[in-house]
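We read letters as residues; the fold follows as tokens. Both lines appear below.
***
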Amino acid sequence: MMNKLLTFPLTQNIEYCPISINNSVLKYNASMKGLPTIGQNHFDFICQSIKDEKDYILDFSNYNGGIDQNPIMLSTLANNHNVVVLSEEKLKDAFLNSGIGFYKEIGNIQGEKIYLTYFEENAQVISFIESLSLNNKGNIIDYFHRYVLTDFFMKDIEGNPIYSFEKGSLKYLESSNVYVNKYINVKSLFVDYKYVALIINDLKKLIDEHFQEINELVFLGVSNNGIILANLLAFEYQKEVQGLNRLGPIYCLDKENKKYDQFYNKKYLLISDVICMGGEYKMAKGIIDMLGGELVGGVSVVKIRDVYRNKKGSEKNRVYSLLEDINEIEIGGKKIDYKVFIDDCEE
């Protein structure tokens, strides 16, 4: 069992800690079962995990458990000069009613205001958060998570020269019949538990938001990475998961396999790592239709092109991603700059 606080680097000196994905860590350190109410022992653990040479953004938004608001407990956190807190109004008011800290409104989540509470003037962290809140699309917390994933993939590409391709040697994607100049390796995420926890947590939120019929759906994986993600999500939901062997990126269907009748009269949600031009989704939908089932939509970690943009109100082809645009976010003056070409010599 992991007993280390899960944090993500935003800059060389700033760490982001979403409390909502630290549930298992908090339960472990308090010897508890179920979603814990965050109390003094949790705050002590958080403070012990903080390193003096770093600044920390503790994100209490989206935490569905209780938070003890005893002034003595809150002061434990406030005594750390290198910590700021993101939260909804209730926790912000608890700090202020105890005479602790200062606050700024920085965004919202589905109409709920999100506040930055700080205990000492920390210009670097405050200005960094404010710059992200000004540039975000949608709610500020989602933007933080997209920023973390973009930063991960950018560093992964920069650290692996074989993931970048020059004109004349672009990488061919068989499922989409296009060439690309960068390789997004979602497998790299699987190496680090905290990134797995982040993407499973965020994919679950994406599913809950867009697929109210979740109880009727079976999770479907059609690639190696997709099947891993589908199984992890199936564990979270305690749901059935099925796979189509090697559908992406190379189409393969074993006609002798007698198990394909198990797809009849079921509704499926496709779980993918990367959606480029939608080839994997289209093949999965065609095969599921042929087998008598229904593919109602899909979720993925990254979507390169929004090939399923529908007319307002349309419920067809509901495909959603944690990173809807891999080139959206600029970090350190750079973007990933992922490009798609129709041939290997495209300018």
Summary: The two ends are 50 Å apart (CA to CA). The chain is about 35% helix and 20% strand. Residues 140-159 form the longest helix (20 residues).
